[in-house]
Amino acid sequence: MRDVVIAEAVRTPVGKRNGGLAQTHPVDLSALVLNALVERSGIDPAVIEDVVWGCVSQIGDQSSNVGRYAVLAAGWPETIPGCTINRACGSSQQAVDFAAQAVLSGQQDVVVAGGVEVMSRVPLGAAKTGGTPYGPKALARYDGFSFNQGLSAEAIAKKWGLSRTRLDEFSVLSHERAAAAQDRGAFDAQIVAVPTESGVVTADEGVRRTSTVERLAALRPAFAEDGVIHAGNSSQISDGAAAVLVTTAEKARELGLRPLARYRGGAVAGADPVLMLTGPIPATAKALGKAGIALDEVGAFEVNEAFASVPLAWLAETGANPELVNPLGGAIALGHPLGGSGAVLLTRLVHHLRDNEIRYGLQTMCEGGGTANATVLELVS
User: Fold this and answer.
1) Mean pLDDT score of the chain, rounded to an integer?
2) Most buried among 50, 75, 143, 286, using CB within 10 Å?
3) Could you confirm whether 366 is annotated as catalytic?
């Protein structure tokens, strides 16, 4: 069995809606992280065999295969192909899994994976305009449920008995952890500064240092009149991109690369599409089983904060140590650039493992339609 490693992982700052990255084209933002990956690793782009890129709203500025045009915008050899995939919010995490599978199988030796979403330019739901994406048979199977993730987040909160106060406490903690991480420079080595016409963006923009449970209590529910989910305990609409270099340990030695982490296993799971966002629970179990690692061996978890109810339900079911979950904050504070988020989380996780000498890390991402990815990484000393 080949030994698959992450040889480098970089990301842009995550920009808030209509913030510092809003004027940057998604292809150009992708090209920026591709070139940063090359510069930081020292690899010759000519040895890269494919680019697998995640993007959710593939319309307008994000249509026509962002992955391929990112390669061209980066100035890389025209012989390097690229593709763009969509597994909803897990798109770039799936891109990493596809890259790892290609390398593990021996079909390819060096693959770049990642993703992008500039939601300021291509709004959430833009790809659904003028159509009915779910189809009449899928809608009929689930009694006409609208597949609205906000309503699913409400249903999860109800099923697991999560009060609004508990959700808001978790959200405030996300901002506190993200602010502390920024202050101690935890993100500095992984972030690629983005030059724009308005200046250089160097830091994640979504962190609200003044967030309190009392302030969140004043916000109106977003999806149900008597609901508990609102803008303050949901992920932020964001812009961002990330890229990951995937190869084998042997190839890394040949190319003079210094691996950061070993890819121990990945899994994708389907779950109830009405609850929709519970997929990380079975995906976690599957990924740990594939990796041959017990939950209590994992020293850091990244569980995407699509809504506060998602990681809290995951915690309740898995019994994981909450102190180890999203230790640097999550999407509630740092943002959720859809197709880029999986690679952003992986980049944060890899660097956190390295910075703190943590052996195992796991990330998992809930996704529209009731699916989820989970990936297990091991620090390479």
Assistant:
1) 97
2) 50
3) yes
